[in-house]
Amino acid sequence: MILLFLKPQGGSSAVVPTVDAGGPYVGEALIPTALDATVVNGTDPSPTLLWTVDSGGSGTFSDDSIEDPTFTPDTNSSSVLRLTVTPSDTSAVFDLATMTTSATGAYMRRRRRAA
Asked: Does the pTM of the predicted model rise above 0.85?
C-alpha cells in the first residue's frame, strides 16, 4: 500500500485514500454478483464513492455509492468496473476490476422473447 501526502493550501497535510476495486469477478447475466472492494480513507473521514461501468458490457449496481454493492450484468459479456473515491481534501483516486459474465437461463429466455 502506498500513501501519498499532499500539502493543500493552509499548510495542513492531507492523506489520499487508497482504493482496491477487488476482483476479478465472475458472474452470470441478469444475476447479481457481490463486489468486494476495499477503501481506506485518507484524512477525509467520509469521501464520496462511485461505481461505474468503465468499458465493455452494461448492468446495474444495487447502490453505486457504497463500498460493496452487487452488480447485475445486463448481457453475456466482459466489463471493466471502476470504483472512484473522491475526498474533499485531495484529488479523486480510482481502481478498476474486470467482470466476466456468462449466459444464464434467464438471459437466454429474454433473448428468445426479443427475437
From this structure: no
